[in-house]
Structures are given as C-alpha cells and as structure tokens.
Amino acid sequence: MMSYLRRYLDCVLMKKLYNHFMNIKTIIIDDYDNLISY
User: Fold this and answer.
1) Is the pLDDT assigned to residue 13 strictly greater than 90?
2) Angle (nearest 5°) at CA 26 between 38 and 8
3) What is the pTM (predicted TM-score) of this model?
C-alpha cells in the first residue's frame, strides 16, 4: 500500500514540476519575444 501511495505522489510531484518548468519556459520565451519586438 505504501509503495503504491509513494508512486502516486511521485507522479503528482513530477507533473507539478513539469508544469512549473513549462510555465517558466513560456514566461522566458514571452519575455524574449517582447524584447525582440522592441
């Protein structure tokens, strides 16, 4: 039971990290595009 729970938590954490990383990437890219357009 604990191993299942742990796997589930790992999955959720990875998803959170991945989403967080993608958000940061998008923000950086948007900033970059804004800089270029000036």
Assistant:
1) yes
2) 170
3) 0.54
